[in-house]
Design goal:
Elements (H helix, E strand, L loop, with lengths): L1 H16 L9 E7 L9 E2 L2 E2 H15 L5 E5 L9 H11 L3 E8 L10 E4 L5 H16 L9 E2 L3 H5 L4 E8 L3 H7 L2 H13 L3
Parallel strand pairs: 1-4, 1-5, 5-8, 6-7
Antiparallel strand pairs: 2-3, 6-8
The structure holds zinc ion.
Protein name: N-acetylmuramoyl-L-alanine amidase
InterPro entries: MurNAc-LAA_cat, N-acetylmuramoyl_amidase_3
Catalytic activity: Hydrolyzes the link between N-acetylmuramoyl residues and L-amino acid residues in certain cell-wall glycopeptides
Length: 198
């Protein structure tokens, strides 16, 4: 049964890539770096979630420049953008996939690792295909991950395209902080996500 599920998701995903006649081979991916401006997101000492996700977004765009993927960064400045604004801007771009980047925080300082969320809507299967690939790319590097999770986050729920939210790690965990707050670590995070888009 597990194999059947995998094959189903794989086939749906494969068809998905070549489904758009306007750019049959090239997929358009919008990277939505969470927070910005007065909305700093999670914070640990002077380290801010909004900056971490912006940095990882930039690395991700750079890493995809030689792939057959058009990467559009929704936020290139440190600016506040409401969720409604994000939704409208993303919809105007008609992407094939949206990746929202965030970093986690928990009162339980032992919690760590990457988490990926998808919404339950008409795009769940396609979103799950990409979400699973992202998690697999981290697992291959023996990185701590959870199973793919379901969440009705505003953007995930309302976007009219496949979308995933990636929580890159926990600012509240000292081990996660080592990579969240280093250029080496941020490039590693971006690389794993980029490799899952191949
Ligand atoms: Zn966040």
């Amino acid at each position: 049964m597990r194999l059947l599920c995998f094959l189903f998701v794989f086939c749906v995903g494969f068809n998905f890539v070549s489904a758009d006649p306007s750019h049959p081979n090239k997929i358009r991916v919008v990277i939505d770096a969470g927070h910005g401006g007065i909305d700093t997101g999670a914070q640990s000492n002077s380290i801010l979630e909004k900056q971490i996700v912006a940095d990882v977004s930039s690395h991700l765009k750079e890493l995809c420049s030689d792939k057959n993927i058009e990467v559009i960064l929704l936020r290139t400045e440190d600016e506040f953008m409401s969720l409604q604004d994000r939704l409208a801007k993303i919809e105007a771009l008609s992407p094939d996939l949206v990746i929202s980047l965030h970093a986690n925080y928990s009162p339980d300082r032992d919690r760590n690792g990457v988490e990926v969320f998808v919404a339950e809507n008409e795009f769940t299967v396609k979103s799950s295909y990409f979400g699973t690939k992202i998690l697999e790319s981290f697992k291959r590097k023996d990185f701590k991950t959870s199973d793919l999770k379901s969440a009705n986050f505003f953007l995930l729920k309302n976007l009219k395209c496949p979308a995933v939210t990636v929580e890159l790690g926990f600012l509240s965990n000292s081990e996660d902080m080592k990579y969240l707050n280093s250029e080496f670590g941020q490039k590693f995070l971006a690389k794993q996500i980029a490799s899952s888009l191949d």
